[in-house]
Each structure stands twice: as C-alpha cells, then as structure tokens.
Specification:
Helix content is 30%, strand content 27%. By secondary structure, it is α/β, with parallel strands linked by helices. It folds into two domains: 118 residues, Immunoglobulins (Immunoglobulin-like, Sandwich), CATH 2.60.40; 254 residues, Rossmann fold. The strands form three sheets. The chain has an eight-stranded mixed beta sheet, with helices on both faces. Strands 3, 4, 7, 8, 9 and 10 form a six-stranded antiparallel beta sheet that branches. A four-stranded antiparallel beta sheet has the order 1-2-6-5, with no helix packed on it. The chain is elongated and about 70 Å long. The two termini are 42 Å apart. It is found in: Cytoplasm. This is Alpha/beta hydrolase-fold protein.
C-alpha cells in the first residue's frame, strides 16, 4: 500500500517551512481533509494542549484525538471511510482548561442546519449530486404563501405551497406534504431539487405543501392535534382550492427525524387517507422490554409509546413507503428494525441506507430516489 501523504511528511522530519508547503499544497486545491482511497487525513494547525476530531459515526468514539507531528504545530488524525461516504465534523481545541469547538479552518466545505454549521468531509467517491444545483434549463416552479385557519392548533398557520412550472388549472396533480418544510427549502435545496427532477422527467409534476411546527418536539412526537391539522384541515383546504388528484394514491407525507414520526403518526390516525409515505432517518426509538430505559430522555417518551404500540400491532397506513437512514446514524438500527414491521402490515417498502449521518445533506441526497419512486415521472416509468 502506498504510504499516505502525512506519513511521507513524518518520515521527512519536516521543519516549519516544509509544513507550510505541505498544508498550502492541499488547501490550494481544497483537498483538506486529504482523501487517499479510503483514508481521510484530518489536519489542524496551531498551538494547543490537545485537539480532538468531533463526529457522530455510530460505533466510533465521538471525540477522536489528533496526533501532533513532532516539533511542529501540525496535528492530524486518519479515518478510514468507505467509498461514497460523507460526514460532518468539528474540532475541539484545548488550551489549558478552555476548550473551543470550531469548524475546520482549512476546509471550505460547510454543512448548515437550524442549530449551526459544521465542516463536511467528502470521502472518495462522494460528490454532491448535480441535480441539487440550479439548472438554467429547468423552468422554475412557484412558491406561494397560504394561511390556514386551524381550529386544531387554535391559530392561523402559514404554509408554503410549491406549484410546478407548467401548473395548469385543467390538470390534476398529486400532493406531497413536507414536514419541517422551511428547513427542507433552506437546507436541502428542496425547490431546486423539485425544479430539476420534474424538468428531467424523473418525478411527476407535483404540488408540495411545506409545513412547519410550532414546538417541534411536542407537535411532531405523535401529536393527535398536529395530525388533525394536517389531515382534516390542511389537505381538505388544498384539495378544495387546487386541482389535486384527491385520492389515497395522490397523497404523500414526507418527514425526516422527528418529522418522520409525525408523518407516520398522521397516517396511523388516518389509514385510509394517504397512499404514500417518505420517512427519512425516522426517530423510531422503541423498547423491547417494558419499562426499559430508551436513552432518549423525556422528550422521546411519547415517541417510544407510539412506536412500541405500532410494533406490537402493525397497521397498514399507506400502500407504498420509502424509508431511508444513514449508516453512520445511531438511528440506523431502529430504522432497519422497522422495515420488516412495515412490510408485515402489507405495505410495499423501499429501504435506502446511505453512507452519511443525521443531516440535511443526507436527506437532500435521498430525495431523487424517494420522490421518483413515490411519484415517478415519464422518464422513470420508461426504465422501470
């Protein structure tokens, strides 16, 4: 096996100038971390008492120590990541009793989320899908704002509605309801993805309602109130005002993390309403032994009760279900475990495991496979 770049540098016993040249060589090409086959070398430079790589790959320590190259200010750690992997990470840098958590100053790849940002490592073979970038040839759809007066939620509720580029009142469209809709638009490029996939005929022309929670951890944790809002207020309002198919086959709920719990919960309460579900990295925490500690804290208690009940008595809540999860997420085991439960209820399930973590890029990258299976476009139908 060819020696890695960092090991060649170590063998040369470099001085400060050699370290400067080494770091400049890779940063100039935006190649930090250094990817050599499955080896990914993370670099940090500066004086410190200790530096740790902070990441969330299930099975690995959350904090991995970096080693200091002797007589230099260069620190490094090497991870072996399978081809096609993508992970988010940060560094913990300790000076005495002070620890600072920071993104990688040598890496311009940044992952954003509602709780902040982190650096991103693209392992060998991973590339951001080209259909997630704006395509000048794709005619843009339209985002419009709708306010739903909700008796269930006891307040007016804003909803963002996507209409495809060639929207016509004389046509009939399937409906997709997306939980955490604002975040999908901001962090998962949902409008760009829809424009591109519809333009390329991978996905049927579809109307999309992007909904948002108030208190997410309450309203998405098997809330009967939020499920009532979606099924009895939002969907009927949209079907009354827009040319939608208006049948089980033409309705789909999509959610990620707690949003996936909310989607399953709404379908569970209305098993004859939705024909399709897309559940990404669902927070399907459960216990096999009554009274066991599920490890999620009080916020997960209603989720665990719901998932435990569903596992005991599976119900057909849709016809087709797309389930995805990152291999590096702690949720991968619960999601794998739920697939045969869903299948046992008579639903057609497509399960996708990705080499990624619990993040918006993972859910963004899964949208083409999810949407083209739930609502396939003419191009997709030709090849299936």
């Amino acid at each position: 096996m060819t020696r890695s770049a960092i090991n060649r540098l170590r063998a040369a016993k470099p001085d400060a100038a050699a370290v400067d040249r080494f770091v400049a060589r890779f940063t100039a090409r935006h190649e930090v971390p250094i990817v050599e086959g499955e080896r990914c070398t993370f670099l940090w430079r500066g004086e410190a008492d200790a530096v740790h790589l902070v990441q969330r790959i299930v099975g690995l320590p959350d904090r991995i120590p970096l080693r200091r190259l002797p007589d230099t200010d260069l620190w490094y750690a090497v991870l072996e990541l399978p081809e096609g992997s993508r992970i988010n990470y940060q560094f913990d840098v300790r000076h005495g009793d002070h620890v600072e958590c920071t993104n990688d100053p040598l890496n311009p790849k940044i992952s954003y989320s509602p709780v902040g940002s982190s650096s991103a490592c693209f392992a060998h073979g991973y590339h951001t899908p080209e259909w997630t970038f704006p395509d000048p040839d794709a005619r843009p759809g339209e985002l419009t704002e709708l306010v739903v007066r909700s008796r269930a939620l006891r307040r007016d509720w804003p909803v963002t509605v996507y209409l495809p580029a060639r929207f016509r009142r004389t046509a009939s469209y399937p409906l997709l309801v997306v939980y955490d809709g604002g975040d999908f638009l901001q962090y998962a490029a949902a409008k760009t993805v829809l424009d591109n996939l519809i333009h390329r005929l991978d996905v049927a022309e579809v109307v999309v309602a992007f909904v948002n929670p108030g208190d997410r951890l309450v309203e998405y944790a098997n809330s009967a109130v939020y499920a009532r809002f979606v099924t009895r207020e939002l969907v009927p309002r949209l079907e009354a005002e827009l040319p939608l198919i208006g049948s089980r086959a033409g309705r789909c709920l999509l959610g990620s993390s707690f949003g996936a719990v909310a989607a399953l919960s709404a379908a569970y309460r209305a098993p004859d309403v939705y024909g399709n579900l897309v559940l990404m990295s669902g927070s399907f925490v459960f216990t096999d032994i009554a009274g066991a500690d599920h490890g999620g804290g009080p916020v997960f208690d209603p989720v665990v009760r719901f998932v435990n009940r569903y596992r005991e008595r599976p119900r057909r809540v849709a016809d087709r279900m797309f389930v995805s999860c990152g291999m590096y997420e702690p949720l991968i085991t619960p999601n794998r475990s739920m697939v045969p439960v869903f299948e046992s209820a008579g639903m057609a399930v497509r399960f996708l495991e990705t080499r990624d973590g619990h993040c918006w890029e993972n859910w963004r990258d899964s949208l083409r496979e999810a949407l083209s299976w739930v609502y396939p476009g003419p191009q997709k139908l030709v090849y299936e």
